[in-house]
Write a structure and sequence with these properties.
single chain, mainly alpha, 13 helices
C-alpha cells in the first residue's frame, strides 16, 4: 500500500521507505542511549545525542531526495529549521533525563548551518528568520553577543537587496558595516568597564571612518550633500549623546566635504572667489580683535570645555 500510494511505477520505493524508517530508528536509538547512559555524569555520552541528531538529519535529507513532492517546502526550509531549533532549545531535557548542553548546542548551531550550507540562492525570508532566531536567543540567555549574528544576517539581507536593486555605491555597504560596529561598541558588555573606555572609543572611531571616508571619496556629486549630511548628523548625534568619536569624525567629515565644495565653487566662479576671500579676511580680523579683548575668558572657556569633553564616552 505504501508503494502504491507514493508511486506505483517505482518498484524500489518500498525499500527506500524501509531504509528511511531504519535510519530514523537508529537515530532515535542513539538519542535514547544517551539518556540511559547519562546517570553516571559522563560528558562523553553527549556524543550519542549528536550522533542521533545527525542520523535524523540525514534521514530527513534522504527522504527529501526520494520524495520530490517535499520540494514544496524548500523555500521554507530555513524557517522550519529555526522553528525546530527553538522547540529543541525550550524543551525540559534535564527533567527527562538528558544533559541539556548537547541539545542547546545543537539548537544554537543548526539555524546558521542551514543557511550557510544551502545550495540555492538565500532568500530574504530565510535571512530574517535566522536573524530573529538569534535575537530571541540573545534575549533568552541575556547575552547580547548572540545578537551580533542577527546583525550579520540582516547585513547579508541588505547587501543582497541592494545588489538586486543595482545599488553599487560603496557608501551603502560601508554604512551598514560601520553601523554594525557602532552597535557592538554601544551594547557589548565588555566595553562598559572603565578600563575598556579607550577601546570603545577606538572601535567607534574605526566605524565612523568606515562610514565617512567612502562618502567623501565617492559621493561628491549634487553639491556633496551625502558626505555633508553624514558629517552633520554624526556631529549632532555626538553632541547629543556626548560621544567623542562621532563628534570628531563627523566634524572632520563635514569640514572636508564643505571645503571641497567651496573649492569647486571658487574654481568655477572667479568673482565669487574674491568676494568670499574678502568676507573671510574681514571675519578673521574681527575674530582676532575680539580674541585680544577676551583672551582670558576664551582660554578659560576652552579649558573647561576640553575638561568636559574628556568625560564623554
Amino acid at each position: 500500500m505504501v508503494a502504491n500510494y507514493f508511486g506505483p511505477g517505482d518498484s524500489s520505493f518500498l525499500l527506500k521507505a524501509i531504509a528511511v524508517a531504519v535510519s530514523a530508528c537508529l537515530g532515535l536509538y542513539a538519542i535514547i542511549q544517551a539518556r540511559s547512559m547519562d546517570s553516571d555524569g559522563n560528558y562523553g555520552n553527549d556524543w550519542w545525542v549528536y550522533i542521533g541528531l545527525v542520523e535524523l538529519a540525514g534521514t530527513v535529507l534522504y527522504g527529501r531526495l526520494i520524495w520530490n513532492n517535499l520540494g514544496l517546502l524548500d523555500p521554507w526550509r530555513v524557517v522550519i529549521v529555526c522553528g525546530v531549533a527553538l522547540f529543541i532549545y525550550q524543551l525540559p531535557w534535564q527533567s527527562w533525563g538528558w544533559r541539556v548542553d548537547p541539545w542547546h548546542r545543537t539548537a544554537i548551531a543548526i539555524p546558521a548551518l542551514s543557511i550557510l550550507t544551502g545550495t540555492a540562492e538565500t532568500s530574504y525570508l530565510s535571512l530574517f528568520a535566522v536573524a530573529l532566531y538569534y535575537g530571541r536567543l540573545a534575549y533568552t540567555q541575556q547575552n547580547i553577543r548572540w545578537s551580533y549574528l542577527s546583525v550579520g544576517f540582516v547585513d547579508w539581507a541588505l547587501f543582497n537587496w541592494w545588489g538586486a536593486q543595482g545599488l553599487v555605491s560603496p557608501v551603502f555597504y560601508s554604512s551598514v558595516l560601520g553601523l554594525s560596529l557602532l552597535y557592538i561598541a554601544q551594547f557589548d558588555t565588555a566595553f562598559t568597564q572603565s578600563q575598556q573606555r579607550s577601546t570603545r572609543h577606538n572601535l567607534r572611531t574605526i566605524a565612523m571612518v568606515i562610514i565617512c571616508v567612502p562618502a567623501l571619496l565617492f559621493e561628491q556629486d549634487y553639491g556633496g550633500i551625502v558626505p555633508i549630511a553624514i558629517g552633520l548628523i554624526a556631529t549632532l548625534v555626538g553632541l547629543g549623546l556626548q560621544i567623542r568619536a562621532l563628534l570628531f569624525v563627523g566634524t572632520t567629515t563635514f569640514i572636508l566635504a564643505a571645503s571641497y565644495q567651496l573649492l569647486i565653487v571658487f574654481l568655477d566662479y572667479a568673482f565669487l572667489k574674491w568676494v568670499m576671500g574678502l568676507m573671510l579676511g574681514i571675519t578673521i580680523i574681527f575674530v582676532a580683535a575680539n580674541f585680544e579683548r577676551s583672551r582670558e575668558q576664551i582660554i578659560l572657556f576652552m579649558e573647561n570645555w576640553l575638561d568636559r569633553l574628556q568625560q564623554w564616552q
